[in-house]
Amino acid sequence: MISTKYIYMIVFLLVMLDLSGQSILGKWKTIHEKTGKPISIVEFYENNGKIFGKIVEILEEEHKNDLCSKCSGSEKNIPILGLDIIKDMERVGKYYKKGTIFHPVMGHRFKCRIKLLDDPDKIQVRGYLLFLYGTQYWERVKY
What we know:
This protein is mostly beta strands. The chain is built from one helix and eight strands. It has one helix at residues 4-21, and strands spanning 26-31, 38-47, 50-58, 84-92, 95-103, 108-116, 122-129, 132-140. It has an eight-stranded antiparallel β-barrel. A hairpin with a 2-residue loop joins strand 4 (84-92) and strand 5. The longest helix has 18 residues, at 4-21.
């Protein structure tokens, strides 16, 4: 007879294997944390072993041609559409860490952590400023 301890261990290993197979590569719909409205589509891609996220579609008609007026440096006054808002993320287990997320409306860059959830079609995206953070849940775009 197999003990309960071994059954729990097998279930745990299967869950961990499933999470390790997930990837954030592809397109994700960003959802506003307060209104629940979709904002944009961000496409995650890999470059030199790191993960980046670029705005490939703006869903709010009135903002489709917005410029990054609050940005600085080379990003100042360029279109938000096409802007890399997530940079230099590294996978650490079920998280992507060590990178940044940029809020083009505010013009601020934050430390970022992205968590793979049990649902493979949702991720938790969190931006940090010191000990404060904001969280959004993004949904995978399916065609």
